[in-house]
Write a structure and sequence with these properties.
The chain is of the alpha+beta class. The protein folds into 2 domains: about 220 residues, Rhodopsin 7-helix transmembrane proteins (Rhopdopsin 7-helix transmembrane proteins); about 150 residues, Alpha-Beta Plaits (2-Layer Sandwich). The protein is built from 15 helices and 6 strands. A 4-stranded antiparallel β-sheet has the order 4-5-3-6, with helices on both faces. The longest helix is centred in the N-terminal third of the chain and has 26 residues. It is elongated.
Length: about 375
């Protein structure tokens, strides 16, 4: 049994953790991209962590209860707590893998590899209801760690180590500013788990996980609101925000040019090589566009295979130089022969002229029309060949 002060401290810590996680959940629920797989996995992590902290709180509150009802609540909450223990580290591995590789195929491999441990752990949790395995509850409703309690801890630390190694060995695939947060995710649970292991009265593991989820939200998830998850470019939402900001300026003072870029025969790439290769082509084009413009220029993926570039304070010569660089970088990419496909694009580009284009929206509609004119020319040329 825990002392009254320790019990109150544990409950208060859990309540604060739940409130923090609920705040993150409601923030994500208001985002337009919440249905993307990476966000759904993160929301699942929030749900699971909130649930296990709630059952942990019941376990704390009813440990040593003198009533039959209290004993039942203690048994049920403790079993669910141990049943859920390996699920959250597993979902974190799924989140991490998908964030790095962006491939749902890996998810099945993680589940397949983890399934034997999960089955064994679940069997031990069931046996613990009547015996001394992962945990033990005596006739006076006092909770104790079981003979095989360390199996649960071993799995937690295995995931901590594997997570860190996955990030380190695949750091070239990850944005530089995301490497540290992804490694840091494992540190609070590792530290909290160590303290809880040697101080059984403390409840620190899952509040520590809540802190880790807050780190991921601040440094990664919150940025997905304005970022296209596949390419890492800005998304349609941020494009709309940027256009709204430009509209606040006086048209006569606005010196701007723009591009609308679309991949030719992109459907053929998807149909021939599969959607994963198609996604790779989108990422490669995004990288080429970023490499062809200045750091301050705005590059976004609007959806599908359509990209846009907004360039401020550039004259016609500078705009044509950018077009030349894009074509040059595409030629280099296609000449390598490292990919089963070539990236050929149609580009609509122009300088914004307020007296001709009337508004910024009409300017980008104009660019879109120019892009489709070029696409039709390319298509007609292919048909003639």
């Amino acid at each position: 049994m825990r002392g009254i002060m320790m019990l109150n401290l544990d409950i208060e810590t859990n309540i604060i953790s739940i409130m923090m996680l609920l705040t993150l959940f409601f923030s994500l629920s208001n985002q337009t991209n919440r249905h993307e797989l990476i966000n759904r996995i993160f929301i699942a992590l929030l749900h699971l962590t909130i649930a296990i902290i709630i059952f942990d709180s019941f376990q704390i509150a009813f440990d040593g209860s003198s009533t039959a009802f209290g004993g039942v609540v203690l048994q049920v909450s403790t079993f669910i707590y141990y049943f859920m223990n390996p699920i959250i580290p597993l979902v974190w591995l799924i989140y991490l893998d998908f964030h790095i590789f962006k491939s749902p195929k890996h998810l099945y491999g993680i589940l397949f590899i983890s399934l034997p441990f999960f089955i064994v752990h679940t069997i031990l949790a069931i046996l613990s209801i009547k015996g001394n395995y992962l945990y033990y509850i005596d006739n006076a409703n006092n909770y104790f760690r079981g003979r095989y309690f360390l199996i649960t801890i071993a799995f937690l630390y295995s995931v901590v180590i594997i997570s860190a190694l996955v990030v380190i060995f695949n750091r070239k695939r990850i944005k530089q500013n995301e490497v540290a947060p992804l490694i840091l995710f494992s540190l609070p649970p590792a530290f909290g788990g160590a303290l809880q292991l040697f101080s059984p009265g403390l409840t620190l593991v899952w509040p520590s996980v809540a802190i880790s989820l807050l780190i991921i939200y601040i440094y990664i998830q919150s940025k997905l609101v304005t970022t296209d998850y596949l390419t890492g470019l800005f998304n349609r939402r941020e494009y709309d925000n940027r256009i709204s900001s430009l509209k606040q300026q006086k048209p006569k003072n606005l010196k701007m040019s723009g591009l609308v870029v679309d991949i030719d025969s992109f459907k053929a790439i998807n149909d021939t090589y599969g959607h994963n290769v198609g996604d790779e082509a989108l990422v490669n084009l995004g990288n080429i566009l970023k490499a062809s413009v200045r750091k301050d220029d705005f590059v976004a993926r609007l959806g599908g295979d359509e990209f846009t570039v907004v360039i401020i304070n550039q004259d016609e010569t500078a705009l044509k130089d950018i077009i030349t660089r894009i074509k040059f970088n595409l030629d280099i990419f296609n000449a390598t022969g490292e990919h089963p496909y070539e990236i050929n694009v149609s580009i609509g580009y122009d300088i914004y002229k307020p007296d001709i284009h009337e508004s910024i929206e009409k300017f980008f509609i104009h660019l879109d029309h120019k892009m489709y004119e070029m696409k039709n020319k390319h298509k007609h040329k292919e048909e003639q060949v």
